[in-house]
Amino acid sequence: MKNQKRNLVISTMFQQAGDATGIALGWGLGIVLIIDLLGLIVSRNLASFLVSLQALPDIASSILNILLMALFLVTPYTDFKWAIQNGISRKTLWQGRILSLFLMTLVVWFIAQLVDLMNTPFDLASAWHSLLWYFGLSLTMMAIGNGFALLNRRWKWIVGIGLPMACLVLLMMLAYSLVGLIPTLSASGVFKSIIISNVTGWVILVIYLIIVYALARFFNNKIQLRRD
């Protein structure tokens, strides 16, 4: 029974994603195609029009990337209300949504790789790094979306505007404070070895993914029905 409800969450999310994809691709590619056709009518340059058509796969891939991020950013509260109405627990909802995130990310990443093969040869290291970026961004959007699902409309505006500004100020303060430390750190052989080590980047990535995953799950477990 639990697996059936989890699979129901996954199938419902894929249905939502499919509907949104159809609309987004229809509008996005349709507008681009109309613009290209108008350019053809004005310039009567068929070669230029055919070249512009070759960019449609790249545009479609970009639309899918944006849609993937937007889906997990804006749907958490709607999914939660739907789960409550269908007797689905937060735990099962979380399992379904996180599995959907991984599966959808793989699909979008795979399509992006196929599109890239039209222009560049396949590179395993580049593909692996891009897959990690896709998962990291998707998981980040889920954590942000789950966090915003805890807030009413007023606090969404406050946090949505105030938090980026606060982060920007903190980053500027951090950068300013590091200016004085850079000469000292640069003189340290240990610091140099840490910076240039390939392990450092992987450690930072793993720590970041663990933190974002924990935040996404914590926010998921705290979502409540509210009155906006």
TrEMBL record:
Keywords of the record: Membrane, Transmembrane, Transmembrane helix
Residues passing through the membrane, by range: 21-42, 62-80, 92-112, 132-151, 158-179, 199-219
Origin: domain of life: Bacteria
Name used for this protein in its record: Uncharacterized protein
Classification of source organism: Bacteria, Bacillati, Bacillota, Bacilli, Lactobacillales
